[in-house]
């Protein structure tokens, strides 16, 4: 209908071939409420209706005579030039079809779109004109695949936003009050649309955030920057909190700020898994250190065996060549042992299980003794200068062993890297306080020195400053890092500076020692058995002994012990000792065969077997082996008079768990019995390699599960003889009992 | 295992005390007699501490008596083995008596037994081999003789000690 009407109008405008019965067609066209644009067949604009000019805010002069496509481009700024060209295509279509067509929408600045009905007007087969009628509509952003026919983009957006469940997406007005609410917001924050719209968004923030005016600050930044992102705790309606990622975007319409868009995501899970990851990492670090510590122990034991064997070998008549080879073995073994000791110390320090003991320290005598020791290794062209300041305290309280270790490390390094010249060792009192001294030890050498670039990483573990030197100077690169940790444990500092006088280095460290308060204190120490005694070997002080004996006394009456000893005198003494410790159930066997029969006959009867080694009929080794063959896991403690270190290892080889040197010392007996009879708090250092490997595998699993399974493993391991080489025993064996 | 140095000998405080109240009392009132180098005081004092009553010494006295019986029996066996040139048996007997003498802290006897044990295995005391059997037999003979002398001497001292008499010095 309209088309006909328009064609009539067009015809009229064409030159009055038919006399007009009504009002002037020009006027009708002019005042038509339709935004019309008449084009020539070649698409030049010939006329525009008043409504069109008004809608498009253009003058007639700006239109007429223009080609349609450039005109559209100029006035619509379409999203793409293609859109304008498509209009041309639609016109061609309409002409070809001699029928009305509608153009696709031309998007304009993402806020609106224009479509045109294209009506070609024919006279016979000749195109007279093309009438286009322009309508403005909403932008067709989701045009095509995303929007089903019949669904406006507007509506699609609304549905999309409202239906999203994983994100809280909503709008705030300019003041920060909530204006819209989607499903995601409802699920995440727990508020229904009705109860939250109109409230200020600061309702989601915690007290701390509110105190620092975080909501206001966020909006301020958002206005300035266009958007703001934040991560932090936000609160739900029920008061619970979640770890949120929040993005706020300022929303403008026609250049006017109308509010904010806010998108909130729940990252609680991610946050939790991050925390778990960090915890797992820390735990695995700890396990790694423990593993190292344990492994070093396991290596050290056979190492000592090898070295003792080597020392024995060197004492036998050897040819010169054999002696050379044995010497190489011995030297390499010593170096390897040092490396292992370093690693052990380092891993202990790293895992925080290293402890400093308190004993009497003779600072001067330790330094002198180290210097004397190192002197023998020096090149003839190097000489030592030792300055001990007169204000150095005679004796102080601290850890003499560790102090010696630091001094040894630093002086040893100086000797290692100095070929000629001098090594000057200077010890002085740096500071004296009411109850402590700080002693400064400086070692100046004229050795190879340290390049400036390497100075910063000197105390970093596993660093050897010059790769080329590592071949010449053996070591782990742990020495200084261990020294540093030890110094710090002793309340001091360590440092390096180049030798100011000539080529070389100055290493210095301080250590803080407690003052010895009274003479009595010194006398107490002096009364303690001296180096190599039970006390220091077992690393337990007086009160610990009493404590241990009391504890042992509490459990002793309930324990059953089998004592295997052939010598009646020794039997009696052992019985006497055990009774004095509170044991009431002690069975006797006077040789290995008897012991095996008794244990086999009542596999669960004994909590512990004390086994003499040298016995008639069946000796202790064989008896232990037979008990183990029978699958009985009772702890067996050897009592041996043998002095050689290898004998101890032989006890373990035969399935025994521990040993007591003969003649049996009561303290040693208490210590050993306590170890095997009192259930002790499990200690990482006491565990075997297998156990730790198991734990490493389990670390990813749940904590409680891991604990339980470990407990199970521990139960088995406690009884696994060969692997039970406790840290403390290993320390004992270093010194070795000698009869 | 000589734990206590010579100059600490009569200082009971040097023996780390973890004993019961009873033992502590006995330490305070009791002073270890000087057995010379016959006895390792620290070891022997542990034996004496096991006595409930230090006037009767019901534990240590029979123990020591038993030891001397054992020692004398063993010496008889050793003499026989020496006549038979049975070194293996001598070594085993030496080890046996070394065990009990060291348990009681009877150092001199123990040292002789150690020599017998090692020589029986054709070894020197330091563990180096002694291939000459005659040397070994000689060593055993000397050590056995010394052990007997020491045992007799110590026995007398012990008897006096348990009788509450001064042990004298020689």
TrEMBL record, chain A:
Residues 560-677 form the Response regulatory domain. InterPro entries: CheY-like_superfamily, HATPase_C_sf, HATPase_dom, His_kinase_dom, HisK_dim/P_dom, HisK_dim/P_sf, PAS, PAS-assoc_C. CDD domains: HATPase_EvgS-ArcB-TorS-like, HisKA, PAS, REC_hyHK_CKI1_RcsC-like. Residues 153-226 form the PAS domain. Keywords: Phosphoprotein, Two-component regulatory system. The modification 4-aspartylphosphate is found at residue 612. Pfam families: HATPase_c, HisKA, PAS_9, Response_reg. The keyword Phosphoprotein applies. GO terms for molecular function: phosphorelay sensor kinase activity. Residues 1-20 are annotated as: Disordered. Residues 228-279 form the PAC domain. It comes from the Eukaryota. Residues 294-515 form the Histidine kinase domain. This is Two-component system protein A. It comes from Diplogelasinospora grovesii.
UniProtKB/TrEMBL annotation, chain B:
Keywords: Kinase, Phosphoprotein, Transferase. PROSITE patterns: HPT. This is Signal transduction histidine kinase. Residues 56-161 form the HPt domain. GO terms for molecular function: histidine phosphotransfer kinase activity; protein histidine kinase binding. It holds the Pfam family Hpt. Residues 1-13 have a biased composition (Acidic residues). One of its GO terms (cellular component) is nucleus. The modification Phosphohistidine is found at residue 95. GO terms for biological process: phosphorelay signal transduction system.
């Amino acid at each position: 209908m309209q088309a006909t009407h328009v064609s009539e109008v067009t015809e009229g405008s064409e030159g009055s071939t038919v006399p007009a019965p009504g009002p002037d067609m020009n006027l009708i066209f002019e005042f038509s409420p339709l935004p019309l644009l008449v084009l020539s067949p070649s698409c030049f604009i010939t006329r525009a209706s008043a409504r069109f000019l008004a809608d498009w805010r253009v003058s007639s002069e700006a239109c007429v005579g223009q080609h349609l496509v450039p005109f559209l481009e100029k006035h619509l700024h379409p999203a793409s030039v293609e859109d304008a060209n498509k209009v041309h295509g639609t016109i061609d279509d309409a002409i070809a079809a001699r029928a009305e067509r509608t153009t696709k929408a031309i998007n304009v600045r993402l806020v609106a779109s224009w479509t045109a009905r294209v009506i070609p007007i024919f006279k016979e087969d000749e195109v007279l004109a093309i009438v286009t009628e322009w309508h403005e509509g909403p932008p067709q952003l989701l045009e095509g695949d995303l929007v089903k026919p019949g669904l406006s983009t507007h509506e699609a957006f609304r549905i999309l936003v409202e239906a999203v469940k994983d994100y809280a997406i909503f709008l705030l007005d300019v003041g920060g009050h909530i204006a819209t609410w989607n499903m995601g917001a409802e699920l995440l924050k727990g508020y229904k649309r009705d109860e939250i719209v109109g409230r200020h968004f600061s309702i989601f923030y915690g007290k701390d955030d509110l105190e620092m005016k975080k909501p206001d600050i966020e909006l301020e930044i958002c206005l300035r920057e266009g958007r703001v992102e934040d991560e932090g705790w936000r609160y739900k309606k029920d008061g619970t909190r979640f770890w949120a990622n929040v993005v706020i975007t300022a929303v403008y319409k026609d250049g006017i700020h109308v509010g904010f868009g806010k998108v909130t995501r729940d990252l609680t899970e991610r946050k939790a898994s991050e925390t778990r990851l960090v915890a797992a990492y820390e735990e695995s670090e700890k396990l790694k250190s423990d593993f190292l510590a344990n492994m070093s122990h396991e290596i050290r034991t056979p190492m000592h065996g090898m070295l003792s064997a080597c020392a024995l070998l060197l004492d036998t008549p050897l040819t010169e060549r054999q002696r050379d080879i044995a010497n190489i073995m011995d030297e390499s073994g010593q170096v390897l042992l040092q490396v292992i000791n370093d690693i052990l110390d380092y891993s202990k320090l790293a895992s925080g299980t290293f402890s400093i003991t308190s004993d009497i320290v003779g600072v001067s005598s330790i330094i002198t003794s180290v210097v004397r020791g190192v002197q023998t290794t020096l090149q003839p062209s190097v000489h030592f200068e030792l300055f001990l300041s007169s204000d150095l305290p005679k004796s102080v309280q601290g850890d003499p062993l560790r102090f010696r270790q630091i001094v040894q490390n630093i002086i040893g390094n100086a000797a290692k890297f100095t070929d000629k010249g001098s090594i000057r060792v200077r010890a002085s009192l740096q500071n004296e306080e009411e109850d402590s001294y700080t002693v400064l030890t400086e070692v100046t050498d004229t050795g190879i020195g340290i390049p400036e670039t390497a100075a910063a990483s000197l105390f970093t573990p596993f660093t050897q400053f010059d790769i080329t030197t590592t071949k010449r100077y053996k070591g782990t690169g742990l020495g200084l890092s261990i020294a540093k940790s030890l110094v710090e444990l002793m309340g001091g500092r360590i440092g390096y500076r180049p030798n100011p006088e000539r080529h070389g280095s100055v290493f210095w460290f301080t250590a803080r020692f407690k003052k010895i308060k009274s003479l009595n204190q010194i006398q107490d120490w002096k009364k303690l058995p001296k180096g190599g005694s039970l006390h220091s070997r077992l690393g337990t002080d007086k009160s610990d002994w009493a404590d241990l004996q009391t504890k042992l006394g509490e459990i002793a009456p309930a324990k059953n012990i089998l004592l295997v000893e052939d010598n009646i005198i020794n039997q009696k003494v052992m019985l006497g000792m055990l009774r004095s410790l509170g044991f009431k159930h002690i069975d006797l066997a006077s040789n290995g065969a008897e012991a095996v029969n008794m244990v086999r006959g009542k596999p669960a009867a004994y909590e512990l077997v004390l086994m003499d080694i040298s016995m008639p009929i069946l000796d202790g080794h064989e008896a232990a082996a037979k008990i183990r063959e029978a699958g009985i896991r009772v702890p067996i403690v050897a009592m041996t008079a043998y002095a050689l270190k290898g004998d101890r290892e032989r006890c373990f080889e035969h399935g025994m768990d521990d040993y007591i040197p003969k003649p049996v010392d009561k303290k040693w007996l208490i210590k050993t019995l306590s170890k095997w009879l009192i259930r002790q708090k499990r200690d990482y250092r006491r565990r075997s390699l297998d156990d730790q490997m198991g734990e490493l595998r389990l670390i990813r699993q749940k904590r409680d599960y891991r604990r339980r399974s470990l407990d199970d493993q521990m139960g088995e391991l406690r009884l696994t003889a060969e692997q039970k080489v406790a840290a403390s025993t290993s320390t004992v064996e270093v010194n070795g009992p000698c009869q | 295992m000589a734990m206590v140095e010579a100059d600490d000998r009569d200082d009971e405080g040097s023996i780390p005390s973890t004993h019961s109240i009873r033992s502590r009392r006995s330490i305070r009132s009791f002073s270890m007699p000087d057995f010379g180098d016959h006895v390792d005081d620290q070891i022997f004092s542990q034996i004496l501490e096991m006595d409930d009553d230090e006037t009767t010494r019901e534990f240590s006295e029979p123990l020591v008596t038993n030891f001397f019986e054992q020692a004398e029996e063993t010496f008889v066996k050793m003499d026989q083995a020496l006549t038979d040139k049975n070194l293996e048996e001598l070594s085993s007997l030496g080890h046996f008596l070394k065990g009990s003498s060291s348990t009681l802290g009877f150092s001199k006897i123990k040292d002789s037994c150690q020599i017998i044990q090692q020589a029986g295995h054709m070894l020197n005391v330091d563990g180096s081999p002694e291939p000459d059997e005659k040397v070994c037999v000689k060593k055993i003979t000397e050590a056995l003789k010394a052990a007997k002398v020491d045992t007799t001497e110590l026995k007398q001292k012990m008897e006096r000690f348990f009788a509450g008499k001064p042990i004298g010095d020689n």
